[in-house]
Design a protein that fits this description.
It is built from eight helices and no strands. With about 160 residues, the chain is an all-alpha fold.
């Protein structure tokens, strides 16, 4: 239990962070791009959701199928918006599966309003390497980075 608590709460040292950057071949420009991509997707989900993202009652009955369709539309629109800028991500793959699963748990099915509405802050913290991230943060960031990097059709290095 102590190891788990340390994993999720203890910041890594500067040396550990540098080792993570080097061993995962992290490019800061790609990291910024991937942060923009994830935040663009989350922002679009928030802005266009027809259910009540605040978790209050609504007269509209939103089904799981509606949520899937909403995610699919937001995903396609985000890909399209980046394509317009000359940045091409694959439409299918691990990156989509990861974000779909993540948003299903933290937004679409989430009953706690504070959790549902905290995704922007959450991703601000995950992508902020200046604040001494935890090993848990780095593992999540590695998953996001590698899945988006694998789908990227443009080399930024």
């Amino acid at each position: 239990m102590e190891n788990f608590f340390s994993y999720i709460s203890k910041p890594v040292t500067d040396e550990e962070l540098q080792f993570w950057i080097d061993s995962n071949d992290i490019c800061h420009q790609k990291l910024e791009l991937f942060e923009d991509f994830v935040k663009s997707l989350v922002s679009l989900v928030y802005k266009t959701y027809l259910g009540d993202p605040e978790g209050q009652e609504t007269n509209i009955n939103i089904t799981d199928e509606d949520n899937i369709k909403h995610f699919e539309w937001c995903w396609g629109k985000t890909i399209e918006n980046f394509n317009k800028e000359g940045i091409f991500f694959g439409e299918k793959g691990d990156h989509k599966d990861f974000m779909k699963s993540f948003l299903e748990e933290t937004f679409y099915r989430q009953k706690i309003k504070e959790v549902k509405m905290s995704l922007n802050k959450f991703f601000d913290e995950v992508f902020n390497l200046d604040k001494s991230p935890t090993k848990s943060d780095l593992d999540l960031l590695t998953s996001i980075y590698k899945s988006l990097d694998k789908s990227l059709k443009l080399s930024l290095q």
